Amino acid sequence: MTEAVEMKVSDEIAISIQNMNKWYGTFHVLRDIDLTVYRGERIVICGPSGSGKSTLIRCINALEEHQKGRIEVDGTMLSSDIKNIDKIRREVGMVFQHFNLFPHLTILENCTLAPIWVRKIPKKTAEETAMHFLKKVKIPEQADKYPGQLSGGQQQRVAIARSLCMRPRIMLFDEPTSALDPEMIKEVLDTMIELAEEGMTMLCVTHEMGFARQVANRVIFMDEGQIVEQNEPEEFFKNPKSPRTKLFLSQILGH
Amino acid sequence: MTEAVEMKVSDEIAISIQNMNKWYGTFHVLRDIDLTVYRGERIVICGPSGSGKSTLIRCINALEEHQKGRIEVDGTMLSSDIKNIDKIRREVGMVFQHFNLFPHLTILENCTLAPIWVRKIPKKTAEETAMHFLKKVKIPEQADKYPGQLSGGQQQRVAIARSLCMRPRIMLFDEPTSALDPEMIKEVLDTMIELAEEGMTMLCVTHEMGFARQVANRVIFMDEGQIVEQNEPEEFFKNPKSPRTKLFLSQILGH
Amino acid sequence: ATLDDVKARGKLNCGVTTGLVGFAAPDANGNWEGFDVAVCRAVAAAVLGDPNAVEFVPTTGKTRFTALASGEIDMLARNTTWTFSRDTDLKFDFVGINYYDGQGFIVPKALGVTSAKDLDGATVCIQTGTTTELNLADYFRANNISYEPVPIETNAEGQQQYLAGACDAYTTDASGLAATRATFETPSDHVILPEIISKEPLGPLVRHGDNDWGDIVMWTLNALIAAEEYGVTSANVEELSAAAGDNPEVNRLLGTEDNLGAMIGLDATWAKDAIAAGGNYGEIFEKNIGESTPIGLARGLNAQWTEGGLLYAPPFR
Amino acid sequence: MTTLSDPTQESFRLSMLLNDTRYRSITFQAIALILLVAAIWYLMSNLFANLEEQGLNISYSFLGSTAGYDINQTLIPYSSQSTNLRAAFVGVLNTLLVAVLACVMATIFGVIAGVLRLSNNWLVRKLMAVYVEIFRNIPVLIWILIIYFIMTAAMPAPSAFRGDEPAASMILGSFAFTNRGVYIPSPVLEPGWMIVVATFVASIIGIVAYRRYSTKLLYDTGRLLPRFWPSVAIFFIPTLLVFFLMGRPISLDYPALAGFNFRGGLQIGAPLIALWFALSIYTGAFIAENVRAGIQAVSRGQSEAAAALGLRPGRIMNLVVLPQALRVIIPPLISQYLNITKNSSLAILVGYADITATLGGITLNQTGRAIECVLLLMLFYLTISLIISLILNVYNSAVRLRER
Amino acid sequence: MSDTHAESVAFVRETAIPPALPPATVSGPVKWMRDNLFPTWANGLLTVAALYIIYLILSSSLPWLLGGIWNAESLAQCREILQGNSAACFAVLSERWNQLLFGFKYPPELYWRPTLAFVLLFIAAAPVLFFDLPRKLLIFTGIYPFLAYWLIWGGTILTPLIALLGVVVGYLVFNRFVKGSFAAGMFGGVAAALVVWILGGMVFSGADLFSLRSVSSRDLGGFMLNMMLGITCVSLSVPIGIALALGRQSDLPIVKYICVVFIEFIRGVPLITLLFVASVMLSYFFPPERTVDLFLRVVIMITMFSSAYIAEVIRGGLAALPKGQYEAADSLGLDYPQAMRLIILPQALKISIPGIVNIAVGLFKDTTLVSVITLFDIVGMIRGPILASTDWNGVYWELFMFASVLFFIVCYSISQYSQWLERRLATDHR
Ligand SMILES: Nc1ncnc2c1ncn2[C@@H]1O[C@H](COP(=O)(O)OP(=O)(O)OP(=O)(O)O)[C@@H](O)[C@H]1O
Ligand SMILES: Nc1ncnc2c1ncn2[C@@H]1O[C@H](COP(=O)(O)OP(=O)(O)OP(=O)(O)O)[C@@H](O)[C@H]1O
Ligand SMILES: NC(=O)CC[C@H](N)C(=O)O
Ligand SMILES: [Mg+2]
Ligand SMILES: [Mg+2]
């Protein structure tokens, strides 16, 4: 493993979540979440399946509605006001586990769709930006193919590029590598590391502990809808405090 | 990792492949394959995706037809004669990447189906054998469940037991662990190691290099349909000869 | 041969209309009744000795000929017009005429129409696959007036369409019109126009080629007609057939003299059975469509030749 | 060498017919072929024996002889003196007419109902579910009959429009709904009409061009012009302007009661309407399900991804969901069109002169040529269905998602 | 590690936060109304429009329905009772009830027989439809067709008994030999069954045991006819459909093309033309001396029709199975018939059941088409004898509504079943 990425964390608050609660029907998914993310932070969220990790980050860009508490992203408060939601979504890019590329559009079109229609950027410019980011994720030559023609790893890199094309200030990743074959995981992780090195604020749900060690400056452990423990990666892995964290880490690092 | 398994290789030839070639349409998948496997050998086949590993071992039990060259398994020549194909398939067990258990049958029925219908063994006896092997893979208590109710690792162990119930003299494994979650890989590898210790002749396509080191007495590297290099594991990993092998090993051990 | 088939089966398959009151219609209990039905029963009685040994197969104008040609039915008694092409091209044999008819029109009285020639531009309901459909086209063309046909499958539907006002006039055989009108709630609101635009000799028919069978049906029909001529009725047929009487023709008819039955492969009592089934032609007529019934058809052309009509049974000898 | 050229060239043994993969398949196929031929031979020999016995033959000369019957609704000139072939042709056109009309209407019903079934309005959703379930679960034959009976029994006869105090009156003085059909004004063309029509066509092209232009503008400069209102304006204004400037060169011929029926205007016969409406509303229920399934088939991840990129719901629908849903919707839609065409053969129930009613009905009956007519009939439907599945295949291969 | 934010680091929660009930704004009827009826302005309008439509439908139909007359002898009498009010005349249903259900020629004193057969149908169908029921019940399902035949058509019990015996013997023989080779089992089974049938026919011909009064198939009618056609044809067409689907999947070109041509031909023509063939042409293809019962001919055509559609559904099921299942079966050394019988078909059929059920529903609805070739099914009864009779001429609504309700009940429950099954299979299979 290479050196841990150098950290550039500022004092500016990127995301602040206060006392946030969410229910699905009567099922209490997220309980009293308090979380402040500073600009430039790279946070890894882990925890057992069903603990609410996805739900948490989906609340941040309003893919899910929360019912109690406040979420502020980049100074904009998340409310049911469509203007605010739009504003936040432009600032926040999201990468999904299953890529969710648009299969009927070419890679390039995937990347330019939102800039053109949302940011109203001329097509030419949008394509240039897109090519720039495609180069960054190392697949400029695939620009005219369709998503179905790429491997999983390539698709995930396109998904990252697509988000980047909207020039977000914050990136959310929901298990970006868990649908990938082992060989492809590396490609994607490399891309993410590069992004981290450039100082992008990142929240990443992942079980790639190597990535967490190398990139994150904070690891958050969730269970049953709560944040159970958070700490610097070194500490987190060496001295997990809560017994639940211990159990989880022993399982995941076990073999 | 534990000690490398003690080797019991005899002089008897189990599989002999001579100058075998295969095409898909006009695409030349396997080129001039020559391979002799002695009884008791444990061979690991690795190589990049698409290099023809699966195709090779599928040719051995006639799941794919080869177009040139000869394959002899246990002294029986593979020809288009159904009798011979049947004979070979009885001698050769196969474990697939995606387990391919029969979801409509219980674990026990999965294991007894072929012995009853192919080997014409009375149901009682077949069930006893099946329980024996289920015990061996450490899941006798699941016998009456359906495959859908088991975890991936357990399913793969059932798949191994199912093959063993036919009392094959040779086992083929096609990436038996690559569809499994990390936690489950170990269970399956343990079972395979045990099998190896008992002196079963095994051909295994896998990228688990730990397993290769510990169990294999020969590692074969394939690329573009050819056997590029073969050697003892120690040598293979330490001093790969061909540059392609080197590249591959660096990638696969890299991250 | 058909006769053997029928005997072996023990039932006569007889094609009738799907429902035209007075000619062939099931009553509330599902028993078929009517003028055409009576012919079927008479044949069944003659052949099998049992007037109830009939399987009635309802046919529409469209399905009747295929049913007969394909052997599904042994004979068709479905107010079917005897025409050249049906007899020759379709390869059927008409064995006689049981009703001399012609095509007419019925219109609501309120329409104020008194002649078919006034029907210019009218919408006319018509059963498809019938001679009346062709006659209608000819008639309007010959008189150079326009109309719009509404083709329907069965008489029942024609009646519904007509009553609902979907067509101004309904045309079919005059007998059929009378029968249909009889079922109306207020028959007097509808008039049958005076024009009869065609000849429609209706009679039973069988497949071409089996002449023995054709003869049986033909002579059963003739027996019914002759019976009326000679005064043999369902009331006196038992008595007359008990012993030979003084009219040799009647004797031959009823099998008390000679054995005509044997000549067509039936019992000597075949004609007696046929007559006993539903009476002679006159009785059948009166019971089903005659003036005492709601349909109220006069004998007209269908009177015996002795009474100025056209019914004329060849001699039994 | 094995499979293809074996060095030990074993000689052919009889057992290889069953045991060798190479010969085995030939054996089975030979058996299948023999069985097939035997069956066909059996049926054919029966057929010819039967025909011979009844003195019948197979001949298509009846097609050239005079049909002798009239047809109430024809798209091409036809009279009772025309040939049976022409009658069949009238039937073909009528089949196609009702099929096309019903396809259009069914699509409209289906799309509306299908989209509304996904509405977030509970009441509307349930109402559409009721529509779909009721129409899907009752035979189309019953629907045709019911709707025909509604037409004939519930609508006024033309005579109801007559008299000083008519029981029924025309809507807007120009539309008459009677139990024999619907009468609507038909356009009467006077000199100059071409210009109006041309203007209309031009403005439709104009709308398309405008929309293209606005997209291009967006792509080029990032400026998004309004689309809806300009389109509406282009649709109406130029045509109306030209129409009045030219001194109204297109006038309408209004239906009026004359004699037994309405004369003038355009008549859409009750049989056509009943069949058209019944087929559309019945098939519409199926299409609604296809549409719903198609939209739901686009995984939620797609709209989530689009939303995460900041796209608004309307755009998500247009740019992401619909293009994908259409691929799922259109193939079953096309086979529903095939179903409509096939179900239109029930036209005889309402006296609509489609191909089944003319060739397969009246002609068959008047000429007695059952075998010939039914064969031709099948041939016609087979052709239609082959054409439709050809279209389907072309479509499928055109929109197939490119994969590795 | 540089400047991480101290306050956010090393957070450890000591106790679990208890789950709380959601705030009231998240649930409750008001929230429901707002979410589901009036989420937006336009949507509210839609709600109002929907309410208005519902009002229109109910206000026009309810009085008519509720005021319906159930006792009268004819339409005229109905009208008399109604005195100009408009309301339904359901009396036609009570008066012609039996005709609507059994046709007009089935002997009334024998109505109990088809009724009993109908009731038993549920017991017979249950184990097929619900996998959880004890498999032993399938025995009754096997017996049912023979029993139902006997009940509906009557005649001596020996006919169905011998037929049943033949099937049982055939099955036993098949079972005995199938392990050796499928072909042996198949031929042995068929041969054994034939022997039993022929012997039975010879021994018992003319014997007359437990004879029920026999009813000819011309006399069947009404809704009973629809049910019989539907059930018979669907159950017959499943095995044919399987054979066709396997044939179409086969890599023997001739077999494959025979199946393809057959399937595509049948699917390309409307059912009604096939019924024309049944009523007009089919008897030309049979030996001259033998005319086949119209009912049987219709059954043949409808079965062919539905088997082509079912074949396509099953083909879908076969295609949905992962290739691995075929390969696993192969690699265990199972031969083609074994792999199909033991591995592939059980799974493929299970997947196909919802599709087959949908075909069955469609087919059941299509049985009404037989009225066009003058069989008196329920629609045929309504269009023919009932509407033509003087008494009831003009009662359309009530009759067609009755038929619609019958079909709706049957079809809707079947399709609900199929949806239930689909849901169950979806969870069952993972
Ligand atoms: N739409 C929904 N309706 C009801 N419950 C839901 C919904 N989505 C998720 N849940 C439940 O909420 C809980 C948290 O789900 P979430 O997807 O956030 O878990 P996760 O931590 O991301 O798990 P994983 O690692 O499996 O992705 C789970 O118990 C899940 O079953
Ligand atoms: N049925 C087929 N038809 C045509 N080409 C095929 C077929 N199956 C496999 N191939 C091609 O043959 C080549 C070898 O395939 P094979 O599955 O043996 O590779 P592999 O080494 O097992 O790869 P992996 O590690 O991805 O399983 C690949 O390029 C593949 O695309
Ligand atoms: N109305 C009818 O059904 C019969 C019409 C006419 N007599 C014919 O034979 O064609
Ligand atoms: Mg998750
Ligand atoms: Mg492989």
Automatic annotation (TrEMBL), chains A, B:
Signal peptide: none annotated. It holds the Pfam family ABC_tran. Residues 15-249 form the ABC transporter domain. GO terms for molecular function: ABC-type amino acid transporter activity; ATP binding; ATP hydrolysis activity. SMART domains: AAA. Keywords: ATP-binding, Nucleotide-binding, Transport. Belongs to the ABC transporter superfamily. This is L-glutamine ABC transporter ATP-binding protein /L-glutamate ABC transporter ATP-binding protein /L-aspartate ABC transporter ATP-binding protein /L-asparagine ABC transporter ATP-binding protein. It comes from Silicimonas algicola.
TrEMBL record, chain D:
It is a multi-pass membrane protein. GO terms for biological process: amino acid transport. PROSITE patterns: ABC_TM1. Residues 92-392 form the ABC transmembrane type-1 domain. The chain crosses the membrane at residues 26-44, 87-116, 128-151, 193-213, 225-246, 266-288, 344-362, 374-395. One of its GO terms (cellular component) is ATP-binding cassette (ABC) transporter complex. It comes from the Bacteria. One of its GO terms (molecular function) is transmembrane transporter activity. It is found in: Cell inner membrane; Cell membrane. SUPFAM superfamilies: MetI-like. Keywords: Amino-acid transport, Cell membrane, Membrane, Transmembrane, Transmembrane helix, Transport. NCBIfam families: HEQRo_perm_3TM (TIGR01726). Belongs to the binding-protein-dependent transport system permease family. HisMQ subfamily. This is L-glutamine ABC transporter membrane protein /L-glutamate ABC transporter membrane protein /L-aspartate ABC transporter membrane protein /L-asparagine ABC transporter membrane protein. The lineage of its organism: Bacteria, Pseudomonadati, Pseudomonadota, Alphaproteobacteria, Rhodobacterales.
Automatic annotation (TrEMBL), chain E:
One of its GO terms (biological process) is amino acid transport. Belongs to the binding-protein-dependent transport system permease family. HisMQ subfamily. One of its GO terms (cellular component) is ATP-binding cassette (ABC) transporter complex. GO terms for molecular function: transmembrane transporter activity. The chain crosses the membrane at residues 38-58, 110-130, 150-174, 181-204, 224-246, 258-282, 294-314, 369-388, 394-414. This is L-glutamine ABC transporter membrane protein /L-glutamate ABC transporter membrane protein /L-aspartate ABC transporter membrane protein /L-asparagine ABC transporter membrane protein. It is found in: Cell inner membrane; Cell membrane. PANTHER family: INNER MEMBRANE AMINO-ACID ABC TRANSPORTER PERMEASE PROTEIN YHDY, MEMBRANE COMPONENT OF AMINO ACID ABC TRANSPORTER. PROSITE patterns: ABC_TM1. SUPFAM superfamilies: MetI-like (SSF161098). It comes from Silicimonas algicola. Its main location: membrane. InterPro entries: AA_ABC_transptr_permease_3TM, ArtM/GltK/GlnP/TcyL/YhdX-like, MetI-like, MetI-like_sf. Residues 223-418 form the ABC transmembrane type-1 domain. Coiled coil: none annotated. It holds the Pfam family BPD_transp_1.
